[in-house]
Amino acid sequence: MANLGARINDVSSNQVEIPVHSDGVEPKASEESSIDYSQRGQWLRAAVLGANDGLVSVASLMMGVGAVKKDISAMLIAGFAGLVAGACSMAIGEFVSVYTQYDIEMTQLKREREAANNNGEAQREKLPNPFQAALASALAFSIGALVPMLAAVFIRSHKIRMGVVVAAVSLALLVFGGLGAVLGKTPVMRSCLRVLIGGWMAMAVTFGLTKLIASAQL
Question: pTM for the whole thing?
């Protein structure tokens, strides 16, 4: 019995403990660490910037037209023209910019692949996507540009229409500023105020200069 007990103790002391969560936790952690957030941030950045640009530029354009024209049709036509032109410009600009970055990274990848003698598939997945960035920028610009247009379309009174456009744009600027702060991990209040004041300045300058030029009858 003593020998049997010694054998049992000897066998139990040589047993290897298997972690309970070895099949559950570690693969999840590895999968989570393999996610490339830089590629996701590429189109998020383009979307936020595009929406903010569409909002400010089209709203400023409509305010400039509204400074000299009380007709709602003139404001809406100007806003629509700004939407189409701005969306095309943003898409082309973003495509060219990101494609240039793509070419640079592809060249660098070829150098590293030749030096390390590997196929470089892991690096290839991290390359920026010009088409994705261009599409996100154009769509976001259009969404931002629709805010002042929808705010003005049902208002017949000129003064009330101008006030509603400013109010709607101010609210949208706060939303875009907060969203950009969350994505960029920056202070929300500071980002919202910066975007709001910048939008107000753009609308005020456009309105004032257009009014000045119209009064001078140039």
Answer: 0.70
